[in-house]
């Protein structure tokens, strides 16, 4: 202990600390403390000159322990530790004393703050002599990447990774990739046909030699850690041999069960029990739906599908296949679900004919949809007037608080499509704000105003079917305050489109738990940092992209997918990855093999060695949370960097004043 | 319309209103009103109002409550609560309307043409007198003070109701009717004490 | 025998007499006793709240303190407005210590006390949730088959409390009448729209128009009868129906009953005991339509 030379640096952090704590006083006091050889104060320690102070003292004064009294370690511990390492000092011989978040920012009285700062600093000064040098642990990295979700985000990420030569597993729970984008008619603001711009990418992903396409599959279990994930994927049985099936759709034409509501068509169209979800599906293979197929339900069927199938690809005995895959990184691109507007009872969705959701309208407008691209009411006639209601299930404390970001633009797009198909039809947009923020979006809004769409600023109060005047007979009436005019209007229309918001997938929480990361309060996946790390999660090696992180349009989705691919690449392009060494170690001589630590470890990082009869820490899986240290009745596990003597010394230091 | 918002009286009135509204449970929520218009669009009587509930909140936030408090708006509120349950910001608009009614009566800012405040007073008098509101007395006093034409409009209905025994002439007096006066007196003292 | 403390409300002594009479008859038939709250006072309804907030809570709480004194922790209420006012007093007392203390003080000044623990129960809640639809359904003696019923809840039935039924789209009344075999208009769009309430006297133009809209919706649904759960609603739709016709040049002739009257008929209660003869718009058609 006698040869410890502690250097103390007290940061003003501008006025964040300096405005509350008497920095001079504390720095002078620190200089008197045991083992302290130099005590300095500086305005901004994290700056280059600030860091240079540390480096100089290490090199010139032979300082071998450092404490920086400044902000939270979450902010700058890596910064200062790197500075120490650059100067030749093991980074784990540097500690931070948080005198900002834990002191100056939360204390009113200056004297109290100064006193508290002293104690916080004292704790670290007492601790430092017990710090040991530690070396980071390197683990090998599996260069393969798994992308979960085959919408535009997943496809884009997979293609980008494949282009760098990496192997990708693309896992998609539906029979075909394509996601929601495959359902759209045109995309804003360019009005490109969605399928036209998407299918080339889908096709490329399907043919790419580096991408293993696992459609109609789901992830069941994820084990392991960064660079070394072990993933169990269940390939659901299609009851069709995908190697021999050519996707000719003869089986679909022959199937006798023809009235299953089509999921792809939002229930507006029908499909068969053996089906290809849409003509451009990738992989282009048939799938049998076991809840509707007569044979699979144990009923009698002549099986015309088998008769019609040239390659004889149908196999009613096919079983699910479970694959055990190993990858180095995972990208989550599981997308969104459209918010179901049934609970918004004042719009009578599900009760009135011709009150439809946005996705239903996409399918109606789409030439490959259930109406052949003709915009019609339920009775087949063309609507003469349409109202599009914004903010359904968004920006609403009663349902979802967030703004779904894309609805204003897709609503305007719908106006355009209606005007294009039916130039004489009147269209009303009932909105609160027109959120047209992206590139070309404001211009799109102006274009729609130019096309004669009626913009009514007001959130619709209700949709009624009670006519109070002859003009209202036979119509749906939208009751809305035109707030710019200050008049309550009753607008009779034939069709009401609800611009329903984007919701997280119904099982987002469960899925995030399988993978080991969390969700935000609004239910979408939680990013590591909302501004600076939007595609990473708190779990190293797992990244997120697209609407599963938060609603966004296609350009932003594609950008995020590329970002996530880059992050994954940065990880898997190296043969090894460094893992923090502040992990637990169990001395086999002392361990009694009672299993308590094994059962309390939240990261499943401790395993029981049957042969030796002791618990062992899986080094790279251990996150250094300390639960095992606390749980063991015999005080056997010790966490590097947080040894008992270090912690007790801190406590003593804090109480020493 | 006179720009009263700049006068000291108007400012004082606004400050008083602010204090009262903000001290209502949930009152501070009017700060997050999106001005979406759902309330006015849902209100069954908004088509008759000078200003809908949304505009009342907008005027409030602009410091111009005096422009709207004398309008017919608050007295047309039937307290049906459509606005309250549909408001995406969770504002208790109906309770806000009640607060404005109370303030309007307290500071004598009731619009002359409005009959609602008078009915309210008659109602309360009846309740304090008998312990229950005597509907016939209510209607009679109202007609005599505010609406002479009413008997003529409602004569058909009135007769039918009377013959059906739905318009009892004599009120029920509860035993504890003095208690209501005492309760009011206590609460008035409490309010005075708070002011000090 | 199950019993409930019962709060009739001021209308029950006057224009809403039929509601009181039919409720008592219905509950008697179901073997449930209703004990009238002793010396109850007016709940204050919307009027009190428009003038003095704390007074409103205090006089409402007086009733609840009497209930507690009578040894019960539940109070059965029939009128929507009474229900909302009394339940609101409870809610505000629970959410605001200031309100609680003021009310306690005021009640103390008249020698009473209330701890906030009496639950206010709407008669519909008791019928559907306590007695239960199965039990109720099994007691139906005269099925209302083919009778098209428009269930009119009114505005303060489920709003703003939403305690025993969905706040936006209640269904208890629908389900009650479905259990009688009636053809309930389940998509009766105006079922929770406001009838205008007290405004029929102060701004009859507004209230008449609201009733006109309600009656139009009922007619559109092909209603044979409208059932209501509040004396003001029933009065406005039925008592003033002739005036609606006069004002708007319409010819509505839709019987309006308290739901307890129709429910009573379904359970085989003698029509004379359900005060059906007190209606302004005759209900003879409805009674005749129900098979014996």
List the helices and strands and how they pair.
The complex is a heterotrimer of chains A (657), B (196) and C (292).
Chain A: E1 6-11, H1 23-31, E2 36-42, H2 48-61, E3 65-70, H3 73-86, E4 94-98, H4 100-104, H5 110-127, E5 137-140, E6 145-148, H6 152-163, E7 168-172, E8 186-187, E9 192-193, H7 194-207, E10 211-215, E11 217-225, E12 228-235, H8 250-254, E13 260-261, E14 270-271, E15 274-275, E16 287-288, H9 304-308, E17 321-327, E18 329-332, E19 336-338, E20 355-357, H10 358-365, E21 385-392, H11 407-421, E22 426-431, H12 441-450, E23 454-457, E24 462-464, E25 476-482, E26 487-493, E27 495-500, E28 502-504, H13 508-515, E29 542-544, H14 554-572, E30 576-579, E31 584-585, H15 596-600, E32 606-609, E33 614-617, H16 627-631, E34 638-639, H17 644-655
Parallel strand pairs in A: 1-2, 1-3, 3-4, 6-7, 6-18, 7-10, 18-29, 20-27, 21-22, 21-27, 22-23
Antiparallel strand pairs in A: 5-30, 8-9, 11-12, 12-17, 13-14, 15-16, 19-28, 24-25, 25-26, 31-34, 32-33
Helix pairs in contact in A: 1-5, 2-3, 5-17, 6-7, 6-14, 10-11, 11-12
Chain B: H1 8-23, H2 38-42, H3 53-61, H4 65-69, H5 73-76, H6 82-86, H7 93-106, H8 116-130, H9 135-146, H10 150-153, H11 155-163, H12 177-195
Helix pairs in contact in B: 8-9, 8-12
Chain C: E1 3-7, H1 17-29, E2 33-36, H2 45-51, H3 53-69, E3 74-77, H4 80-95, H5 97-108, E4 119-122, H6 123-138, E5 148-152, H7 172-178, E6 183-184, H8 199-202, H9 204-220, E7 225-228, H10 231-239, H11 241-248, E8 256-258, H12 259-266, H13 284-289
Parallel strand pairs in C: 1-2, 1-3, 3-4, 5-6, 5-7, 7-8
**CATH class group of the largest domain in chain B:** Mainly Alpha
Percent helix among the residues of chain C?
40-55%
What is the CA-CA span between the terminal residues of chain B?
36 Å
Do you know the CATH architecture of the largest domain in chain C?
Answer: 3-Layer(aba) Sandwich
Radius of gyration of chain B: 19 Å
CATH topology of the largest domain in chain C: Rossmann fold
Helix content of chain B: 55-70%
Beta percentage of chain B is under 5%
Mean pLDDT of chain B: 86
Oligomer: heterotrimer
Q: Count of DSSP helices of chain B?
A: 12
C-alpha-based Rg of chain C, rounded: 19 Å
- pLDDT below 50 for ≥5 consecutive residues: which ranges of chain C? none
User: What would you say the CATH architecture of the largest domain in chain B is?
Assistant: Orthogonal Bundle
What's the number of extended β-strand segments of chain C? 8
Per DSSP E runs of 2 or more residues, the count of β-strands of chain B stands at 0
State the order of secondary-structure elements of chain B, H for helix, E for strand: HHHHHHHHHHHH
Largest interface: B-C, 69 and 65 residues
Low-confidence stretches of chain B: none
What integer is the average pLDDT of chain C? 93
Order of helices and strands of chain C: EHEHHEHHEHEHEHHEHHEHH
